[in-house]
Amino acid sequence: MFRFEHTIFLNLLLILPVMLVLYLLYLRWKSGVAKAFGDHQVIAQLMPDISPVRSHIKFALILLTLGGVLLALANPQVGSKIEKAQRKGVDLVVALDVSNSMLAQDIQPSRIERARQSIARLIDELENDRIGLIVFAGKAYTQLPITTDYSAAKMMLNTVRPDMVPVQGTAIGQAIDMAMASFKDETTGKAIIIITDGENHDEDALKKAADAADAGIKIYTIGMGLSEGAPIPIYKDGQIVGFKKDQSGSTVITRLDETMLTKIAEAGNGIYVRASNTQAGLRKVFDEISKMEKTTFDTMNFSDYEDRFQYFIGLAVLIMVINFLLNERKSKWAGKISLFHPAKNQK
pTM score, two decimals? Predict the structure, then answer.
């Protein structure tokens, strides 16, 4: 198993192509300046010891040295052994509403963006718990099966957007059904967190919540939005170009349905929390979930990771030494070698 311990340094590798572009621009500028002084061949004869090729090689060595240092700082590691470990935690499935009404901005920066930020913070606080992600609008889809891979959870969360489910609506009942099917039968601590504005919900949401409670699964609902509501923005090229209107031409106002979300939470033996511009409610829900009975489950982990940064450090030092020894000027003995112009016979 191969991994980088500090992946943040890999992002700095983007500096290398930027430096290359700047170097090419510098060469272009330098060539233009040289042309202003005279013919290229004449200037080359005036500076016979200067080797442009060596300058290019030295710059390439600088890039390789920097790349080696950054890879060393990222600390590549190789996992040499797999071990079985036991963890105690709960299974969570977050069901996130991605309908167009979640674009409303009564919760800043928007309902769906605040929901994603809150879920990301929740993932950061997980230790031994497993988490899954379901997205829904008029239909529900599994975005991420239950896992302990929190990096994958964050990556999949970043792909969530309102236009990923073409059918509009708020299929909470279907999302609950799909979440229930995601849980392992042997687990005891199971919870579903539904994050939605609750608008245009389906009629069987209450029944599905009661079914989940009968199966030992608690349901928590978080209402995204304010009671006064807000218009639904229409985007084009990342900019708001208007707001959604009904058939009569009036602007549609999307409002939070707290009554229904409260009933769903009660039917699921959980609690309802309303989000606001200062807090999104997941803290209170997470505190409740932390009181649940934990399940012991087995995981397979790579252990005994061995560092491999020393190879990249050694390579960087070697390249740096070569760069230091390489002179931009042509060596005197190299200038005496002429493979294609044999010396004339001296009389």
Answer: 0.61
